[in-house]
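Session log. Operator J.P. requested a structure for one protein chain; no other inputs attached. Running the standard single-chain path with C-alpha cell output.
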Amino acid sequence: MTLAEIINWCLRTEKKNEIETYIESIKKGSKIIRVNEIISVMAGKINYERKKFIKNWGMIDSLILSSSLLYNLKLLTKDSQFKDLHNAEIL
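Structure written below.
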C-alpha cells in the first residue's frame, strides 16, 4: 500500500524518473508486511471511525494504520492526518 502511494506521488510530481529509487529505498529500510484478514478487519473498523472526524481519510490510510498497530510499529509519515495518533511520527 505504501509502495502504491509512493508511486502515485512520484507520478503526480516531478519525481516520475525516481520511482525505482524511492521503491528501493523503502524496501531497504522497511519490512514488507502482507495484508491479511486481521489487518483488513481492523482497517474497516478504523476507516469507519476516522472518517467521522477526518474528511479525507482513506482506506489505504486505515490499512497502513492497522498494520502498524497490529505489529506495534512506529508509523513515519508526512501526512498530518495521522498527527493525533500515539504511534505516528510526523516527518
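Operator note: The chain has two domains: 1-32, 35-91.
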